[in-house]
Hints:
The chain is an alpha+beta fold. It folds into two domains: 166 residues, Porin chaperone SurA, peptide-binding domain (Triger factor/SurA peptide-binding fold, Orthogonal Bundle), CATH 1.10.4030.10; 108 residues, Roll (Chitinase A, domain 3). It is 51% helix and 14% strand. Helix 1 runs antiparallel to helix 4, helix 2 crosses helix 3 and helix 7 packs across helix 11.
Amino acid sequence: MKRALSISVMLVAAISPAWGQLLRSHAAAAPASPKPAVVSAPSPTGKPVARVNGALLTYGDLLREEYTIFPYARQHNGSIPAAMQSDIEAGAMKMIVFEELVYQEAQRRKMTIPPARLQRAEAEFHKQFSSQQEYQDLLNSEFKGSRKLLQTKIERSLLIDELLKTEVSNRAYVTLAQLRAYYDKNPQQFRIPESFAVQTISVIPPDNANPDQQKDARKKAEDALRQAQATKNYEDFGVLAEKLSEDDFRVMMGDHRAVDQTKLPPQVLQVIKGMQPGQISGLIELENHAYTIVRLNAHIPAGEQKFETVKDSLREQLKKQKAEQLRRALDARLRKNAKVEEL
Length: 343
């Protein structure tokens, strides 16, 4: 699975970075067995999941799109947290259907990719392999040994990207005046609540844990604390969180990003208010005999962001919003007369 995932990422990087299109293979491996609290469907990758104007999309297509939406799965043998699985799968289904509709529209418009551009894209893809044998192995496993099939997949991705540039990204421009107007009309959006950027390692006993289970959880937490206190930086702590933590944040190196202080458990807030960035807490006992260890990465005081500080990120935000509106409108237009069946 790690092999299949790395291939999908290389395809994205080499062929269509702007939109993250995947060159879909119908022979990807199924994910490995997930850890507790994570799910991953065991369906065969060649199983049809949708039909778009007669074109079949498979579980392999769906799976690859899920990994694009949740790239952390690459670090966890294809596992996706159970709480996120349903939303990720639904989003992936919408995206693969949308991409197929876009591709069919590009064909309807008789759009083409210049041979030189196709060759460059194939060369960029090829050079990411450490050896010719590694490339050939991929060609055999993912594209039935056919370079022509690979080129077809690359061309498909480029056509999708080209149509989206025409209909979406090229039309999603935001002027400086529009930025300023938005900033002035939405002052509340630029007020920053006092927040704390944290990573955690958590030990969670079973519900209604008996005394022995509670004792075992305490022992595991104390052992985790000893190891956490020996870490030197964000990366070290994150790797340990991936190994030891028992909450869903472990698949993101234990990183909760910046959390509004009002949303932190009181026990945690009380401790981290006295910490400096880079420090690691002792054991913090939570409800139901659970324990957490916190690394404070940043303390962000309340305040108001100035226009000059936020204008670049705001431009990107508004461009994304406009692009999403355009994309949704395009999706609606393409679906209007299309026959789409989820199988």
